[in-house]
Each structure stands twice: as structure tokens, then as C-alpha cells.
Amino acid sequence: MQRRKFIKDTLSGLTILLVAPSHLSSSCNKDDDDKPNGKTVVVIGAGISGLAAAKKLKENGFNVIVLEAQDKVGGRLRTNRTLGVAFDEGASWIHGTNGNPITNLAQQAGMNTAITNDESLVCYDIGGVLISDTQFDHAEAKLETILSTLKNNGSATQSFETIFNSMYPTYTNDRLWKFLLSTYITFDLGDLDKVSSILYDKGEEFSGEERISTNGYDTIPNYLANDLNIQLNQRVSKIDYSNSKTKITHNGTTTEADYVLVTVPLGVLKSGNIQFIPALPKAKQTAIQKIGMSCVNKFLLTWSTAFWDDEQYIGYTPEIKDKFNYFVNVKKFHPNVNALMTFAYADYARLTETMTDAQITDEIMLHLRDIYGNSIPNPTNLVRTKWQTNENSFGAYSFTQVGTKMHYFDDLAEEINDKLFFAGEHTHIDYFSTAHGAYLSGIREADKIIDLI
């Protein structure tokens, strides 16, 4: 599921990306100096970026308080185990294991993983018609060519969809092309009518295997949270950094700090639910407004017996784009579990949040029955996500929409008056929209604060 890797490999060939050792040093390795230094840091948000920073700051002698709005740590690294199998509602994969800080962190945290093979795919058209490997490979190769040249015809004011449709009008209503654009572009980036036609290829990738978590991605935040002072169910409403000490208002109480690290998702910053005094600098406000926030929702369904192909992925090409067109065969890495995981993206993902579980199940089963016949049974259970209306995220992850400039990611990462700091995947210019980008941003900000002492 390394979709951006597909884009990047298309444009520049496979490159092994190395990150400076200082950035990859685990926040779980204690530094030499862990004596109290008399300084207090309040970290807002107990996602992977906030926890990584808090861990490193604590090990360097800071008094660290983590304020988390939810009832558990992890942020968008959430795992639902109600059906007896770990269903990761947010991040599921380690995208490229070579040099990726999540690789070692996952091992330390006890997160089990399995290799997933993008080539293990079978794809069906409407009517259960199998799309041949030749046809699929030809279209995929054509997409590679298009991705390598489309940005040359793009502009800062036009979307990927606008340019693509003008250049390749015969593909606009082709169901296979809808599938490819949906699962390769929209899934990884965001709404095609909002994705920038000149920045769709931005963002770096690590090389190596694609590994999916099998016992839950939340093992990582749970591990990082060990021995930290974390206050749950604390929703921050105001940050006043106008004086020597910064005052953080949460649940009607106030906490003072020498430094504050804000790690809430971009969607929360966009919502304006946190008041900053004084208002954030214009450059940061512009970045918050201009960078996009995508929506991807995930759905896990279980059955008593399996009826589907013994492949890692099952594709389907419906008329409606972004709608339950891609299925992960969970049985491939959980042999005793009969389950499929599917997705909805962009506007259709947002639409699903207005639908009942029964309506969702009916729509998914229409696709599966078109592939495998009307005799297949209904699922025994369904669990799902609703990221767009989740007040703790208001979306899935950031992306380069029309109007985005790459320096906006750096603008989001810029500290203010050496008192107010920012981390999260949306603040990492190279690895935005990823768990590893979020982690690295937390280490980056911890280092900034440490350097002030």
C-alpha cells in the first residue's frame, strides 16, 4: 500500500533515503543528562509526535506534562479490538522499512508485522468480470507515464483532476482508470479536484518492505507513553503566550509552562477550536488554511467463512469513484480470521459518515455480490471510522492541495518566540501524511527545546 512510493518511483527511480542519525535516534534511549533542569514543557496531544517529544524531553531533565483530549493515548494511531482482531483505524503500515524510524520503534514496542505484497492483487469489473493482468498492467504503465509528465502541464491554480481530464478525456469515465486514480492518488493524497497539479509528487519515501501491523499500531504510542505524566480527557481551548510564562487553558483550568509544544492535527488547527493569544503569525495562519486535510475511512467486516480470492488485495471498479473499490484480505496475515478491510476516500468517505452501519454493509455487499455472486452471506460484524467528523482530527492527514506551497509545511513547523512549538505530520516537509513524519517532527521539536537550555 505504498502509493506515494509508486508515484515517486515513477518519477525518479527507487532511491534509498537516509535520515541524519540525530533524527533517527530513538526517544526511548536515555540521554546522559536526565537530571531536572527546572523547566516545564506542556505537550498538547498524545499522538506519536507529542509522545516522542515528551519522552525525549523528560530524558533531558524537563518537567513534562502531556494534555490529551481523548480517553487514551495515540491520536490517529488508534486500534479497535472489539472483533477479536486488531483493526487499526488510522495508520496500519510501516511504509518502507529501510531507515524508517518506525521500524526499530515497532520492534521495541512489541508491534508484530507482516509483509504485504502489492503484486498479490486480483481486480474485477462490474458484473464480476475479471480484469486481465495484461489490461491492468497496461493501464498501470500508462499511469506511470502520465504521472511523470502531467505536472509539466499543471499550474498552481488547477487541480490534478482538471489537468488530467483535459489531457485524457477518454479516461474520465473509464472504470479501471477511476479505480487507479482512486487507489493510487486519492487514497494517498486527497480529493482529486483539490490535489495540486504541480505538487502531487512531493514527499519522500523510505525503501524496503511494506509491513502491516498485525497486533495493533497502538503498541507504539502505548510504549512511548510509559512513565510519562499524561493527563487524559483534557481539551485545550486557549494558549496564551503573551507573557514570560505560557498559560494553557484546558477543561476550565490553567497550567503554566516555560515551553509549549502543540501537536494537534492540522484539522484541529483549521477548526479554530484552540484560541491563541496573541493570534498566530500570518504565515502560520496561511499555511493552516492552504494545506489540505484529506479524508479516508476504513471498514472491517468479518464472516464465519471466507468466500473471496486467496490474494492480498481485491480490486473492484464501480461507477462511483472512491467507493469500496479496494479490499485487504486480512486472512493473509491472520489465517484464522475471515475478514476483509475496505476503504472510502474523499467526498464519498465523508458521505459514509452520514450512513448507518446497515447502509454501509448493504453498499459493500452490493460490490462483493457483484464479484462473487448473490449467495455469499452477509458479514457477521462491521467496525468503521469517521475521521472527518471526529473533533480530535477533522480529517485523516495533510496533503498538497491547490494553493499549497511547499514552504507552508516549514511555516507550520516554525517556533514562535522560543516558547511555542509545533509538531505533527503536517509540519514535516519531507514526510507529511505519515506516522514516521509525525514521529520525526516530535524529535525535531524536542531537540529545539533542548538546545535552548
From TrEMBL:
Example GO biological process: auxin biosynthetic process
Entry-linked SUPFAM superfamilies: FAD-linked reductases, C-terminal domain, FAD/NAD(P)-binding domain
Stored Gene3D superfamilies: 3.90.660.10, FAD/NAD(P)-binding domain (3.50.50.60)
Annotated catalysed reactions: L-tryptophan + O2 = indole-3-acetamide + CO2 + H2O
Entry annotated with the keyword Signal: no
Enzyme Commission number(s): 1.13.12.3
Annotated residues for binding of substrate: F343
Binding site for FAD: S49, E68, A69, V236
InterPro entries for the chain: Amino_oxidase, FAD/NAD-bd_sf, Flavin_amine_oxidase, Flavin_monoamine_oxidase
Keywords recorded for this protein, A-Z: Auxin biosynthesis, Oxidoreductase
Pathway the protein acts in: Plant hormone metabolism; auxin biosynthesis
Protein name: Tryptophan 2-monooxygenase
Organism: Flavobacterium fontis
